[in-house]
Design brief:
By secondary structure, the chain is an all-alpha fold. The protein is built from 21 helices and no strands.
């Protein structure tokens, strides 16, 4: 882990409790890892438990509602919290009041948009039963706005308080959903469960807020926040275009089964993001604190990426190597069309983690337009390369297009990072160092297959164990200094 050095450039910014920023960030990484793993486990538990008591139609209605509500909520999250954490005003309570006022205003707008979109969706799908639960879900938006005090703890890097308060949401949601499902509430168990969780988290966030909740507004604040946030909104729209477009074009051209294969491959490959989420979430407040010190930004970038790539690179390339045995001996023959997707998506996942948190450095400087630009370059490659390849060569063409898309995106990241961090960022050396620990394991597996050393599920497991062992050993040798630090 490579947060800033022990000398804190802004001692009043963080709740360090006697630790250096470096030590505090490392501690925060552990706390955030525990929290995210726990939330994922609760979500998995809820899914399995509720599946026993709800029908597939109940889940279908819930899935449609999530597409509608989730897309708008994704757009709403862009910017205000990030800008509040990035700013460094003298009066932090006043700064929070201004940010909270804007959050409430935008939340009101999005609540109205959701309320309008739900009946339209119900009419378009000829499913009138979507209206009532959809309108109830609109009440999540003000609850999320009232969770704004969590920004204060996050900005101070008070991760224990932040995560404890956030944990109320999944726990209450699980209990309420399960209780309602046991009593035959159907899809309302999911709707009311997520609503109860959101409002419970809002209540404890307000109760434990270090600052009062007041409305303060001035045009200058609006201008600053909008100039920071609108590129992030545009970037989110670009992400939605690629995600939704991939499923839509695949479904129309190849059918629903092919869309299922794409969904599976995307879901599996996204596990490479787990360490990235932990590291990015922990480092952002620290990066903001040293945003004017280029040498420290370069240090945090290089070391945080090396840390995350210790997981992402072996996972992605391992997925590519073992996609076929995974399907043959695990998922079953019905998923055979997904093998080529898993292989290419695995390579794309590994490549895509290079400079994964580049946008945090631009946000820390208050420069967000390049983030939108890169996302829309990705959209352009998707439309010009990925879609034509899908139409010409089916799932294989789509997989190749997604890999090309990833390579172009990563290249754009490094061009922009060189501008921000200077020539000290040696891209070739950085990439070589990221790939080096996993190459011995890849070479061992490929050599065994070239010699036709064996086959079957048992041999595949032995291959996987050898790959993991060699990769772990190489990582310990090549990255021992970073791991010791």
């Amino acid at each position: 882990m490579a947060p800033p050095p022990a000398a804190d450039p802004n001692p009043s910014r963080f709740a360090l409790a006697g630790r250096s920023v470096r030590q505090h960030t490392a501690r925060g990484t552990i706390i955030n890892a525990i929290f995210l793993v726990s939330v994922a486990a609760v979500g998995l538990l809820r899914g399995f438990l509720l599946a026993r008591f709800l029908t597939t139609e109940d889940y279908g209605i819930w899935g449609v509602l999530l597409v509608c509500v989730g897309t708008l909520l994704w757009l709403k999250q862009a910017g205000i919290g990030d800008k509040y954490i990035q700013q460094d005003d003298e009066d932090q309570e006043l700064a929070f009041h201004k940010a909270f006022t804007l959050e409430l205003a935008f939340s009101a707008i999005f609540t109205v948009l959701l309320a309008i979109s739900v009946p339209i969706l119900a009419v378009a799908l000829d499913r009138p039963e979507l209206v009532a639960p959809g309108l109830v879900l609109c009440l999540i938006v003000p609850a999320l706005a009232l969770q704004a005090p969590l920004w204060i703890h996050y900005r101070r890097m008070d991760f224990v308080r932040q995560r404890l308060l956030q944990s109320v949401d999944p726990i209450v949601g699980l209990v309420v959903s399960l209780a309602l499902a046991l009593n035959g509430a159907g899809y309302w168990a999911l709707v009311l469960g997520i609503l109860a969780g959101s409002w419970s988290a809002a209540a404890v966030s307000v109760w434990w807020s270090p600052y009062s909740l007041r409305l303060r507004y001035d045009r200058g604040t609006l201008r600053r926040y909008v100039s920071f946030s609108w590129p992030l909104l545009v970037a989110s729209v670009g992400g939605i275009v690629v995600a939704q477009g991939s499923i839509l074009v695949t479904t129309v051209h190849l059918g629903i089964a092919a869309a299922g294969a794409v969904t599976l491959a995307a879901s599996v490959s996204q596990f490479s993001d787990r360490v990235d989420q932990i590291v990015s979430g922990t480092l952002y407040p620290a990066i903001c604190a040293v945003a004017d010190r280029t040498s420290l930004l370069l240090e945090t970038f290089v070391k945080s990426n090396r840390l995350a790539l210790m997981w992402a690179m072996p996972f992605g390339l391992g997925l590519a190597l073992f996609a076929e045995p995974l399907v043959e001996h695990g998922l079953g023959e019905k998923w055979r069309p997904s093998i080529v997707l898993l292989q290419y998506f695995g390579v794309a996942a590994a490549v895509g983690q290079l400079a994964f948190n580049w946008d945090s450095y631009y946000r820390a400087r208050g420069i967000t337009r390049p983030i939108a630009a890169v996302n829309w370059v990705t959209v352009g490659v998707f439309c010009a390369v990925t879609v034509p390849l899908l139409l010409a060569d089916g799932l294989r063409g789509f997989a190749i297009g997604m890999l090309v898309q990833t390579v172009v995106t990563v290249a754009c990241r490094f061009v922009l990072l060189r501008r921000l961090l200077g020539p000290g960022l040696q891209v070739g050396r950085f990439v070589a160092r990221a790939v080096a620990p996993v190459l011995p394991g890849v070479a061992l597996v490929l050599a065994g297959r070239a010699l036709d050393a064996g086959e079957g599920g048992g041999f595949a497991l032995a291959e996987l164990a050898a790959f993991m062992s060699v990769t772990l050993g190489a990582t310990l040798v090549l990255e021992r200094a970073l791991l010791a630090e």
